[in-house]
Specification:
Structural class: alpha+beta
Number of helices: 7
Helix content: 25-40%
CATH architecture of the largest domain: Roll
Largest sheet: 6 strands, mixed
CATH class of the largest domain: Alpha Beta
Radius of gyration: 18 Å
Number of strands: 14
């Protein structure tokens, strides 16, 4: 895995642009997520998604499909959904962001009707409305957490701030190449690949389990579960400030003789040496298998 070459290429893209734009604040995406929650409570799940989604936004239901196409064809989605952002980042230029945190879905009147889990939302700046729009939303289920999650919401590093290109989300080749290298590494060693690419405080969201925070916990989990993972890159996007990016694709997880299909979404950031590293990955089982 030659990450050094990719780091140099990414650094060149950054240095080629001039500093510009108003400073971004992470509260922008937190507010967008809070408004999304209120919309779901007021208008229902379906209408909330149709209101906030980006025109090119996607869901995994069970194939990769535009959010507008999926929710535009279904009846009103039953139940109530509440969630709270506890982990959030935004790019220095404010054109790409994500939030993550716990959710509760209830389709009934008793405590037994509640489903608990965690979600990840990716947001992209819409150039016409100048508002963040939802790129995708993915979740996992797990038992109710015994303790409240800590809050980790930080402002971007403004030294990463650069001028916005005409379409920064087409300038994503370096990140997609890193994602393919990640997936190639999985063929050799699942544990070794996460050790190579995940940041020390990186998070992994795996169905049935509460989010793992930190590379040490993740490596221990992978080893104890005795699972192997193969994956295929589908697409992604990158902030114009070259400090935040996302990728997504398909994954197959084998444990013993059992093989299950998943989708994954990864969030990437650059370190001080301009290398792309994974700060969050969520693996969600393919629906209706």
């Amino acid at each position: 895995m030659n990450k050094a070459i990719l780091a140099i290429a990414a650094f060149g893209c950054t240095m080629a642009s001039a500093f510009a734009q108003k400073a971004a604040t992470v509260q922008t995406v937190v507010q967008a997520e809070d408004e999304f929650v209120k919309l779901a409570a007021r208008k229902g799940i379906k209408e909330a998604f149709l209101t906030v989604t980006d025109p090119e936004g996607i869901v995994f239901k069970p194939d990769v499909i535009k959010t507008t196409d999926f929710y535009g064809k279904i009846d009103k989605q039953p139940g109530t959904l509440t969630w709270q952002p506890k982990y959030a980042r935004i790019s220095a230029n404010g054109d790409l962001a994500f939030t993550a945190g716990p959710y509760v879905y209830q389709n009934g009147k008793t405590e037994d009707d509640k489903v608990y889990g965690d979600y990840v939302s990716i947001w992209k700046l819409d150039q016409i409305s100048n508002r963040l729009k939802l790129v995708t939303n993915l979740g996992i289920q797990h038992p109710q957490s015994a303790a409240a999650q800590t809050t980790d919401i930080k402002e971007p590093v403004q030294t990463n701030k650069v001028a916005t290109s005409v379409d920064p989300f087409k300038s994503k080749g370096v990140v997609l190449t890193n994602d393919r290298q990640f997936n190639q590494g999985l063929k050799i060693s699942t544990v070794g690949t996460y050790k190579e690419f995940l940041t020390p405080e990186g998070r992994v969201y795996f169905p049935g389990f509460e989010p793992m925070v930190g590379v040490d916990k993740t490596l221990k989990f992978m080893a104890n579960q005795a699972i192997s993972i193969t994956a295929e890159t589908l697409n992604g996007g990158r902030a114009s400030s070259n400090d935040l990016a996302y990728t997504y694709g398909r994954a197959r997880i084998r444990k013993g003789n059992i093989v299950s299909n998943y989708y994954y979404v990864r969030l990437w950031e650059q370190d001080a040496q301009h290398r792309w590293n994974v700060i969050l990955e969520i693996l969600s089982a393919v629906e209706n298998e």
